[in-house]
Amino acid sequence: MVSRWLVVALVVLAPLAVSASGFTDIGQDIEKETETVVRANGALRMRLEALYNLDLDRGLTPSGQSLFPVPLSDPGGQWLTHADLRLRTDLALIVPEAGMAIHVRIDALDNLALGSQPDGVPSVTTSQRPANQPFVVERAYGQVLTPFGLLAAGRMGNDWGLGMLANGGDCASCDSGDAADRIAFFTPMLGHIWGVAYDFTAIGPTTPRNHPSRVVDVEPSDAVRTFTLAMLRYTSPIARRRRARANRITFEYGAYVSHRRQNLDVPAHYLPTANPTPIDRGQVMSRGFRATATDLWGRLTLPYGRIEVEAAMLFARIEQPSLVPGVELADSYESRQTGLAFESDFGPDHATGGGAWSLGLDGGYASGDPAPGFGALLGARNGGTSAAAPQPGDIDGPQAFAPRDTRVDNFRFHPDYRVDRILFREIIGTVTDAVYIRPHTRFRLASLGPGRLELGVAAIASMAVETASTPGGARGLGVEIDPTLAYITDHGFVASLEYAALFPLAGLDNPLLGLDAKPAQLLRLRLGFNY
After folding, report:
1. What is the largest CA-CA distance in the chain?
2. Among candidates 274, 268, 73, 295, which has minimal Cα distance to 162?
3. What is the C-alpha to C-alpha distance for residues 434 and 424, in angstroms, rounded to an integer?
4. Cα–Cα distance, 193 to 156 (Å, whole number)
5. CA distance 134 to 280
6. Contact, 132 vs 122, CB < 8 A?
7. Handedness of CA 116, 120, 122, 125 (dihedral sign)
8. In degrees rounded to 5, what are phi and psi of residue 487?
9. Phi and psi (nearest 5°) for 463?
10. What is the pLDDT of residues 487-513, one digit of tens each?
11. pLDDT digits (tens, 9 = 90+) for 412-426
12. Region for 25 from its dihedrals, namely left if φ exceeds 0, alpha if ψ lies in -120 to 50, beta otherwise
């Protein structure tokens, strides 16, 4: 549990992005308008999936885990199906004469599994029950232009660079996204955008005040606070396209450093327990947590393509990793993680995105940890617990387990940074403790009415950094082929048929049972109604 907390604390150290699209759009919507306006945009997304053999027919891990859920009535069954829905709306009130804008993001039926709420006995139901949380306000923040720069405050999105580390979850296939309760200030200086932010990352237990809807934090010293400083040289999309048409090269770059700290902690406030634990002075304990994240990003836009790269290093230390008040551990926990992502696209008329074809090569690296398991989804398996030490051959587990192991060094890509459809996205959970290479291409097959029909193909070859992390004890993880057939209109409708075939390698075998991992397949139909 402690190692999970350390990993999560590291990877959510966030840069200064505050809009739906990221740091680079700060204040631009205010400057574009000449009078007060309310804007709305968003998308209705439906996905239908068929999943074949995602447990790879390689049996259970030593801890009794399957690599992916299997049918209840037949553990040897191969097929699972799923369909879900989400309506997302971004609202903006822009008052240019006041130099002010207010932004709100609302998600309705977010990733709701279709058919999951039948009204009555499933076999005779004629309706679906209303969702328990039909609307969720994901973001609400304001911006105002001052003589010295732009001030932003509220709950806002985090997005930076490629989205490898901080990702706002704005892509069509994204399922989560980062948000921060933040006060931030941005100003142009010396040809760059400079920003500084203070985040209310977490507070401890609260108690009601005299007003029934207000509370007060009863232990200020257990609060988690994050400070960030960022610098960016950026060119707008319109300017990039104009320069590309004129056969000019555009180079953009940015960097940030983010520091997080917590002195004391009250674990009883957030740890799940069978019975409620009274929150009193005896539950307060020392923590001594410090973490720093640094990130570099660069993009080179050519007349015929794009090259983009992001690299990050994360450092953390927990002086007292115990979660039990009155019980102290002798050793502190430390972490050093490194991640790198690279993308490229080349083709005719690349600046407008309307070329007849394109091709490119992507790649990535996420540092590993020699502990068994990938440490990608700690707490998400085995009913949400991760207290037991992982065994060799497990797919996941804590990467630190005192006293013999006090380090957590596996870098985790943000789960919304998609590089494949089966291995990292469904089986492991995200890119971590791995190296991958991803060639890809796209062709326009035909122009049909107001849209176009496109065929895209990507191939992903991946291997582990630490062989001890893999279930099979070998470096090779797999080769995956991901073709896509998409119909894209000029008016916002997108229909894509996505297929994936994973051919696993020895790193996913089960040597204890003498079983080789077998291929897996996925078929997904995604419909997008964008407005």
Report:
1. 71
2. 295
3. 10
4. 18
5. 36
6. no
7. negative
8. -110, 120
9. -145, 160
10. 999 889 999 999 999 999 999 999 999
11. 999 999 999 999 999
12. alpha
Is residue 367 helix, strand or coil?
coil
Q: Which of 125, 131, 152, 151 is nearest to 141 (CA)?
A: 152
Query: What is the pTM assigned to this prediction?
Result: 0.90
- The domain limits of the chain are 2-117+133-530
φ/ψ of 97, rounded to 5, equals -65, -25
Instruction: Report CA torsion sign: 59, 62, 68, 74.
Output: positive
Contacts of residue 315, defined as CB under 8 A and 6 or more positions apart, other chains included, come to 291, 292, 293, 335, 336, 337
Output the six-digit token pair for 294: 């640094």
A 10 A CB-CB count for 443 gives 15
Of how many residues is the chain composed?
A: 531
Rounded CA-CA distance 504/517 in Å is 6
Q: How far apart are CA 510 and CA 61, in angstroms?
A: 8
The CA-atom distances, in angstroms, between 401 and each of 285, 335, 404, 406 are 20, 13, 7, 6
What are 83's two structure tokens?
Answer: 């369909």
CA 411 to mean position of chain CA atoms? 13
Residue 260 structure tokens = 């997080």
Residue with tokens 């996420």: 366
Domain 2-117+133-530 coded CATH 2.40.160.100: yes
CA distance 67 to 54: 7
Q: What span, in angstroms and rounded, lies between the C-alpha atoms of 75 and 86?
A: 30
